[in-house]
Amino acid sequence: MKNLLLIITVGITVWSCSKDDDLNDGVLVLYNQTYCFDSWGYPDTDKELADVIIEYLDDLDIELYNVKIDTNGTPQLCNACFCLSGKRIIGRISVNDLDAIKEYGFREFE
Predict the structure, then answer these.
(1) Contact between residue 104 and residue 39 where contact means Cβ atoms under 8 Å apart
(2) How far is it, in rounded angstroms, from Cα 76 to Cα 2?
């Protein structure tokens, strides 16, 4: 009886610890920030920027997670709004959201 209970407990534990599908199917995406053309605005800190982008996309039913912001992009020295600032927004999304997020300037990042 103890062995049966142990087997059932181990089985339930292993079954309940299955990996999250979004993490398995997640796609890394990248957005190159512009100087003044981004729909979500320009908060003061990178943390605020990540939060604003996540909220903006969430309102569009696109879940962006594991967001990181770096300055490894190439800034463009021009005054137009669409010129690149050099900041890159990198995050993960579900495979199902890839086409939708591309409409907002993100691209798959490898």
Answers:
(1) yes
(2) 69
> Tens of pLDDT along the chain (110 residues)?
555 444 554 444 444 444 444 445 699 999 999 999 999 999 999 999 999 999 999 999 999 999 999 999 999 999 899 999 999 999 999 999 999 999 999 999 98
All structural domains of the chain:
20-108 (3.30.70)
Contacts of 24 (CB under 8 A, 6+ apart): none
Rg (CA), the chain: 20
How far is the C-alpha of 101 from the C-alpha of 64, rounded, in Å? 9
Bridge partners (DSSP) of residue 29 are 91, 108
